[in-house]
């Protein structure tokens, strides 16, 4: 009987099961095959089964390689590192048909750390770090070789750690295989597959995972490089934008410098600085004095808000630029002296960060410096002109008025019409004399007037102005420079020096007497004119003769005191102040009543017996008051 080899070939071609290969052998036995024939048939069956197993292994290997190549292709298509890592563990779990898969990456400072997982249930396992040389993964990273175990916890080949073993036990993992992710001779991580049953991983599984790890390492490296490249490109873009912003800032600074230089060279003013800076920085710019009043503004109709005023005060307190967001202020300084502040309002074009950059801050501070220079120059010019005007006023008050033609020429040089009527103001201003003088000069110059300091008092004249308006102008103008309320005596208007050379002197005398009356009557901090003093004002007016009146009513007593050194005038004042009570008069003078009686008898001999009659008494009291005012 011949062996039916064709039957086995047909079974192989039909992809029959292993049980089907028993059919020809069973048929031969039933047909009465000899022992030798049966042995040859069984041998043919074994060969056929070997061929079948080989073909099955090759098909399986072909499927694994196909899946591996498909995985490599998928990994090559991914560019995001997290997506690459997740794809690696997902493929590993699928290829090895394992319960879980996970991947760790090397952290040079702190050892390996868990990056991605697939099939892991516990948070403790996901957060586990694996030091070099510890556990299966630590050994793989240290030796750069694959390792596997059918049951990890009792396997003594590995250095166990309580936290790692606890995480493995908590996850229920038994069998583990780990292979290194290699780039040349560098281990960048470890790829794991694991089962929750004791199920060893064979050589084929190890080879397959090693192949996947080789592709994975390349994909990880590529993704890292792409991320680093993207980060570098992003950083380059940021740097480019910064360079562009810096170039724009440099251009703005250069433009601002050219503008400010031209303003100074061409004799421009603070208004020109404000306008130029507003155009360069694209924002509202305001220059304020120390009292918060606006000197110049690029938007005259827009008032300074309370917040802007607070920022301005802070910059002055700190003596440097202050502010945030879109409101900034910087002090206008001349050395250590504060002249005011420069306010930068909201931008017309929004900036990305909203804050003032270094370049724009330097532009603002340089503009403040130029503003200080212009203010100092303006003050110097005003002071020089003020000195000239003060010298002329001093000559007018001293009665040394030059001839009309010279006076007219000096007025023309000062751009002043000396033929106009003038109001005359004399002010008592407590405080620093130099500062008060500067303030008076500024007030006079801004109203086409003249100012001088005489005998400790400030004298100002203003054209085309009545006495009260001129006095109030002086009170307001000198308020900040004074250490106490400003008291003012005012007169006029009087004819100008070209019309009547001695008219200013008469007005000055009247204003001075009004100031003395205000101080005597306790009217400090007020503007006092002759009209404010009633009948006393009539005597103090430009046409009155108070000295003559005093002499006619009280002259003998005054002369007696001057000749004898007595105190009759003082006694009379105390006598009337005490309502003619001798005892209170003596107490006020700290003398005996008899002394008062004797002094009053002497007054009677000097003034006559009727001096205490009602009409004469009023005249004597008025003379006493006038004597006190004009003394």
Strands, count? 16
Q: With helices defined by DSSP (H or I, 4 residues minimum), what is the helix count?
A: 21
Number of domains: 5
Shape: rod-shaped
Structural class: alpha+beta
CATH class of the largest domain: Alpha Beta
- Rg measurement, Å: 55 Å
Provide an overview of this structure:
The structure is a single chain. The protein folds into five domains: 5-63; 80-229, Beta-Lactamase; 284-372, 2-Layer Sandwich (Beta-Lactamase); 399-540, Alpha-Beta Plaits, CATH 3.30.70.100; 546-630, no CATH class. Helix content is 57%, strand content 16%. The chain is built from 21 helices and 16 strands. The strands form three sheets. A six-stranded antiparallel beta sheet has the order 3-2-1-6-5-4. Strand 10 and strand 11 form a beta hairpin. Helix 3 runs antiparallel to helix 4 (81-96) and helix 9 runs antiparallel to helix 11. The chain is rod-shaped and about 190 Å long. The model has no long low-confidence stretch (mean pLDDT 78). Residues 226-253 form a coiled coil. Residues 80-230 form the GAF domain. This is GAF domain-containing protein.
């Amino acid at each position: 009987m011949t062996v039916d080899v064709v039957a086995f070939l047909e079974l192989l071609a039909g992809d029959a099961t292993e049980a089907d290969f028993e059919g020809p052998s069973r048929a031969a036995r039933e047909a009465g095959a000899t022992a030798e024939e049966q042995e040859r048939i069984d041998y043919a069956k074994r060969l056929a089964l070997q061929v079948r197993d080989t073909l099955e292994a090759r098909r399986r290997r072909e499927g694994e390689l196909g899946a591996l190549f498909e995985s490599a292709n998928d990994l090559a298509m991914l560019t995001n590192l997290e997506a690459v890592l997740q794809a690696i563990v997902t493929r590993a779990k699928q290829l090895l048909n394992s319960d879980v898969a996970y991947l760790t990456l090397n952290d040079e400072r702190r050892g390996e750390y868990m990056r991605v997982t697939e099939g892991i249930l516990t948070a403790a396992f996901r957060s586990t770090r694996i030091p070099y040389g510890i556990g299966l993964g630590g050994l793989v990273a240290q030796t750069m070789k694959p390792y596997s175990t059918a049951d990890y916890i009792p396997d003594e080949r590995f250095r166990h750690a309580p936290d790692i073993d606890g995480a493995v036990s908590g996850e229920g993992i038994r069998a583990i295989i780990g292979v290194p992710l290699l780039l040349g001779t560098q281990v960048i991580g470890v790829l794991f597959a694991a089962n929750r049953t004791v199920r060893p991983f064979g050589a084929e599984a190890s080879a397959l995972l090693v192949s996947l790890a080789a592709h994975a390492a390349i994909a990880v490296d590529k993704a890292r490089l792409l991320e680093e490249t993207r980060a570098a490109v992003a950083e380059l873009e940021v740097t480019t934008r910064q360079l562009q912003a810096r170039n724009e800032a440099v251009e703005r600074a250069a433009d601002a410098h050219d503008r400010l230089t031209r303003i100074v060279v061409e004799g421009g003013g603070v208004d020109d600085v404000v306008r130029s800076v507003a155009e360069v920085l694209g924002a509202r710019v305001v220059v304020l004095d120390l009292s918060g009043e606006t000197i110049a503004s690029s938007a005259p109709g827009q008032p300074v808000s309370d917040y802007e005023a607070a920022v301005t005060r802070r910059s002055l307190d700190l003596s440097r630029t202050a502010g945030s967001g879109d409101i900034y202020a910087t002090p206008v300084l001349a050395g250590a002296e504060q002249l005011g502040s420069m306010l930068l309002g909201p931008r017309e074009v929004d900036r990305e960060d909203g804050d003032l950059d270094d370049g724009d801050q330097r532009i603002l501070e340089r503009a403040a410096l130029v503003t200080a220079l212009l203010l100092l120059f303006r003050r110097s010019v005003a002071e020089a002109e003020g000195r000239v005007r003060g010298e002329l006023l001093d000559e007018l008050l001293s009665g040394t008025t030059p001839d009309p033609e010279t006076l007219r020429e000096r007025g023309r040089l000062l751009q002043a019409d000396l033929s106009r009527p003038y109001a005359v103001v004399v002010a008592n201003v407590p405080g620093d004399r130099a500062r008060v003088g500067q303030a008076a000069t500024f007030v006079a110059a801004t109203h086409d007037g003249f100012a001088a300091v005489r005998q400790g008092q400030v004298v100002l004249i203003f054209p085309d102005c009545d006495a009260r308006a001129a006095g109030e102008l002086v009170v307001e103008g000198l308020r900040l420079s004074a250490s106490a309320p400003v008291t003012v005596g005012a007169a006029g208007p009087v004819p100008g020096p070209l019309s009547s050379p001695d008219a200013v002197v008469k007005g000055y005398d009247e204003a001075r007497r009004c100031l003395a009356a205000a101080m005597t009557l306790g009217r400090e901090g007020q503007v006092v004119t002759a009209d404010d003093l009633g009948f006393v004002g009539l005597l103090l007016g430009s046409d009155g003769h108070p000295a003559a009146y005093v002499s006619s009513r009280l002259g003998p007593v005054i002369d007696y005191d001057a000749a004898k050194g007595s105190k009759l005038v003082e006694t009379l004042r105390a006598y009337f102040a005490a309502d003619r009570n001798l005892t209170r008069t003596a107490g006020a003078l700290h003398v005996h009543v008899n002394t008062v009686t004797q002094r009053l008898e002497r007054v009677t001999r000097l003034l006559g017996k009727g001096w205490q009659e009602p009409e004469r008494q009023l005249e004597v009291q008025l003379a006493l008051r006038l004597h006190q005012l004009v003394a």
